[in-house]
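Here we describe the complex-level prediction in full. Unlike the single-chain runs in Section 2.1, the two entities below were treated as one system.
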Amino acid sequence: GDSVTQMEGPVTLSEEAFLTINCTYTATGYPSLFWYVQYPGEGLQLLLKATKADDKGSNKGFEATYRKETTSFHLEKGSVQVSDSAVYFCALLRMDSSYKLIFGSGTRLLVRP
Amino acid sequence: NAGVMQNPRHLVRRRGQEARLRCSPMKGHSHVYWYRQLPEEGLKFMVYLQKENIIDESGMPKERFSAEFPKEGPSILRIQQVVRGDSAAYFCASSPPQGTAPTGELFFGEGSRLTVL
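The structure predicted for the assembly as a whole is:
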């Protein structure tokens, strides 16, 4: 079945470092891909999305490109801040009648001053 | 605009008791999803509901778990005869009417954290 695999965390970086969080997927058809972020004690928020191959989603300095050939959607940011510390979830949207998101296991990011 | 409201935020139950979790979707949203998050794990889909209808309950355990989204009032996730393995965070999310294609953007509540003693 459809699935999402993320790199295991935690990822610990110093402020202003470059961030990459890897995400690969397995899906039939052509799913839409998403990154959600969960700050401590809160629910998930949509960070960015891409709906077709070669699309680049971007928001708040984060970017991810939908790579069909490698079935990947890696999250990147050029210069992280302490406030980016959170758990990041990669997800895909099944295009069948249920319209349900399938999430990866999440990657915890800790940014130190 | 109020977001997705879940209550209670924290719930403690003893084994064998019942747990009821409530979710009020965002105004104008008619689709509700329930997800479960076990410690250090991702979110697992449980059920997808529209008003008065269960659309997809493929992620819901066959026994002890039920969900509803009545015409009036919040969506309810009910867990009967809770066991320790039910301890988790339960997140509700809502989305507006899908139209011709889903957008995938779900609006999440802050979650209800169930602890079973």
